[in-house]
């Protein structure tokens, strides 16, 4: 309906503004302060980044109630990956926040999202620019695996701090006789992360073929 379409347009616009601000801020800071800006990335843009990622949880709801026709599982995996890395791994360990991998991760996320939300906004109005369509469904194929590698590296960097501080590790009281050692949980999640990457990449190729196939290109040109 018109109301739902307007709601989705406003949602995409809010996300576009947030990610554009982050992306522009990162570029300006790097051009101004050089490498010194990399270690301070999280403290400069972390709040807006967290707000944008929390807002993205609504996309799962959009799919569940049927106003977004995207596939649920790939989108769910992509959103939960970011939530876990941002809030559980990076936000909880101040020592990790100053690592260069955080800047790399934020750059990749926001580059992809600026393109994606720009495409989505125009698509809500029935506007399709072939170069933007190609960029939206092509850029994610090389950049998403790079972001997964960055996520994996961020987890590896954080492991010594989780081991030292015991963050999220729980020793269950009597009568339970076992404890949850969080570094082991993160190591197991690494396997899930890379297994999910294979599934999501396959889905990205399917989406690209569906939107950039010869017939679809001709229809959008006409």
Automatic annotation (TrEMBL):
**Which EC class heads this enzyme's classification?**
lyase
UniProt-recorded Gene Ontology molecular function terms: very-long-chain (3R)-3-hydroxyacyl-CoA dehydratase activity
Q: Pfam families, per this entry?
A: PTPLA
Q: What are its E.C. numbers? A: 4.2.1.134
User: Where does this polypeptide localize?
Assistant: Endoplasmic reticulum membrane; Membrane
- Keyword Glycoprotein among UniProt keywords: no
The membrane topology term of the UniProt record is:
Multi-pass membrane protein
Membrane-traversing stretches = 7-30, 42-65, 127-144, 181-201
What does the function comment of this entry state?
Catalyzes the third of the four reactions of the long-chain fatty acids elongation cycle. This endoplasmic reticulum-bound enzymatic process, allows the addition of two carbons to the chain of long- and very long-chain fatty acids/VLCFAs per cycle. This enzyme catalyzes the dehydration of the 3-hydroxyacyl-CoA intermediate into trans-2,3-enoyl-CoA, within each cycle of fatty acid elongation. Thereby, it participates to the production of VLCFAs of different chain lengths that are involved in multiple biological processes as precursors of membrane lipids and lipid mediators.
Family from the record: Belongs to the very long-chain fatty acids dehydratase HACD family.
Name this protein carries in UniProt: Very-long-chain (3R)-3-hydroxyacyl-CoA dehydratase
State the organism named in the record.
Urocynchramus pylzowi
